[in-house]
Inverse folding.
């Protein structure tokens, strides 16, 4: 069945780099894009970026200078890296998938809570 | 960026009643392919978001038909008929027509 699972450190120091992995199963990254979304504690959802099924990427302009997304299709993994972390980057980070149609946003990972410590 | 304005921010409803949530976008959400990429999500307490409706009015797999979506261009509505206890949580609209994709600020549904 379709699954997405985020993994990575739960505590990161300010000014350091966050590295998260989204491991997927039940579908191929060559057929679906993967989106990263984050949610600060008690707040709403923020779209961070996407890696499309062809490997191209698009980023939220507010994060673009700090963010990169890439993937390893052979391992069914998508990677998020964001540098120069600040305390307001503290959030739950989710990955979800898209095909631009029927399957858009239909499955989400359980999320990983990342705390940025000063 | 496309601003998604959801109203009301919260509502309290008794089991069995019906409710509607509004989502208005600052730009038309019709894409160049003629489709409208407006979706509705529910985030139950402590859980990941779950997709309810995609492309305005299409019910997601396994979603009860008590949920329905309508609208066009810039004005959209989610209706929940015969609310059940499991419907509590925060409802978000989301647009994936324009970059950056954006979400509404959420509507918190409480059960009386």
């Amino acid at each position: 069945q379709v699954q997405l699972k985020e993994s990575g450190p739960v505590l990161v120091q300010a000014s350091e780099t966050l590295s998260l992995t989204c491991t997927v199963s039940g579908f191929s990254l060559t057929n679906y894009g993967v989106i990263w979304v984050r949610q600060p504690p008690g707040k709403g959802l923020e779209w961070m970026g996407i890696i499309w099924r062809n490997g191209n990427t698009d980023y939220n302009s507010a994060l673009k200078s700090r963010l990169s997304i890439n993937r390893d299709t052979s391992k069914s993994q998508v990677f998020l890296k964001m540098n120069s972390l600040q305390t307001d980057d503290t959030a739950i980070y989710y990955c979800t998938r898209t095909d631009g149609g029927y399957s858009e946003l239909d499955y989400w990972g359980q999320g990983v809570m990342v705390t940025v410590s000063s | 960026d496309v601003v998604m304005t959801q109203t009301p921010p919260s509502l309290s409803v008794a089991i069995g009643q019906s409710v509607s949530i509004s989502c208005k976008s600052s730009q038309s959400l019709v894409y160049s392919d003629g489709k409208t990429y407006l979706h509705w999500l529910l985030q139950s307490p402590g859980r990941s978001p779950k997709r309810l409706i995609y492309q305005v009015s299409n019910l997601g797999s396994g979603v009860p038909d008590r949920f329905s979506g309508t609208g066009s261009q810039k004005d959209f509505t989610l209706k929940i008929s015969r609310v059940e206890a499991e419907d509590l949580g925060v409802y978000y609209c989301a647009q994936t027509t324009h970059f950056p994709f954006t979400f509404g600020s959420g509507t918190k549904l409480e059960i009386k």
Q: What stands out?
A: The mean pLDDT of chain B is 97.
